[in-house]
Amino acid sequence: MHKTRTESEAFARSVRERVSEAPSCDLLIFPPFFSVSVVAETLAGTGVGVGAQDLYFEASGAFTGEVSAQMVADAGAGWVLVGHSERRHVLGEGNEIVARKLNAALDARLSPILCVGERIEEREADAATDVVREQLEVALAGLTADDMERTVIAYEPVWAIGTGKTATPEDAEEMHGFIRQWLCGAAGSDVAERMRVQYGGSVKPDNAAGLLARTEIDGALIGGASLEADSFLAIAAAAPAL
Fold first, then answer.
1. Which residues contact 185 (CB under 8 A, 6 or more apart)?
2. Contacts of 130 (CB under 8 A, 6+ apart)
3. Is 89 in the active site?
4. Selecting from 3.20.20.70, 1.10.10.10, 3.30.470.10, 3.30.70.2190, what CATH number does the domain 5-237 have?
5. Of these residues, 86, 118, 122, 156, which one is catalytic?
6. H or E segment at 4?
7. CB contact at 8 A, 114 and 153
8. Mean residue pLDDT across the chain
9. Where are the domains of the chain?
10. What whole-number distance in Å separates Cα of residue 161 and Cα of residue 87?
């Protein structure tokens, strides 16, 4: 919940002017919903994708304050976040709600980024992989190979979001390896290898290169460090060439 419509447009203009600073990676921006259309218009033709931060699983109806997948697409977004840690742990969305949102996104031909991750008490109880496994099992149940390939997984250790703590590159890669292994079992190795698994948890310009250099980490879901074009593009520039 950052940036007015005017501020979002200014941010998008800055990225548009400087996108050549990060030529080796794909870039996506997820503004607040009321700014999606102006950001999409500003970035048209640049190759920078635009997504919404959330959606509701019904196509229409008396769901005051919610936004449907069709509305997201009509605003100019091709992507949507599903199951972000703040939706799960601040706003109380369970795995079943996340699954319904994921399916609604896919039905509308949006590309979802499914966020998974454990809280500090779950990690300290050695339950991190159990938590992530259940989140994956419920959200991805019954998907076709095509749907799986259109879905990006973002591992967010909740304890490393907004706390200044960051999983070490080794910690992050270990969980990413577990996720990839699970995907292999669920969809086959060919599909699993084509899927992207990103890391999100206090990624900043000074730690991005170490994280993104890891074989199992395919990208970053960036929070606070994405609010300014300088730091956002510095992280993008740290990504290995595609």
1. none
2. 122
3. no
4. 3.20.20.70
5. 156
6. none
7. yes
8. 94
9. 5-237
10. 13
Q: 79: left (phi > 0), else alpha (psi -120 to 50), else beta?
A: beta
- Express each pLDDT in 128-174 by its tens digit: 999 999 999 999 999 999 999 999 999 999 988 766 676 788 989 99
Q: Which residues contact 24 (CB under 8 A, 6 or more apart)?
A: 237, 239, 240, 241, 242
Confidence of residue 217 (pLDDT cuts 50, 70, 90): very high
Write down the catalytic residue from 84, 93, 118, 173: 84
What separation in angstroms does the CA of 194 have from each of 68, 71, 166, 170, 214? 28, 29, 26, 22, 16
CB atoms closer than 10 angstroms to residue 149: 17
* Residue 51's pLDDT band (cuts 50, 70, 90): very high
Q: What does the alpha-carbon distance between residue 105 and residue 98 come to, in Å, rounded to a whole number?
A: 11
Model pTM score: 0.95
- Tens of pLDDT along 64-98? 999 999 999 999 999 999 999 999 999 999 999 99
* Rounded-to-integer distance, Cα 81 and Cα 63, Å: 19
Q: Which whole-number Å values give the CA distances from 13 to 22, 47, 242, in the listed order?
A: 15, 14, 24
Cα separations (Å) of 113 from 17, 28, 53, 108, 189? Answer: 26, 11, 10, 14, 20
- Please give the single-letter amino acid code of residue 114: L
Q: What is the mean pLDDT of residues 54-60?
A: 98
84 is catalytic: yes
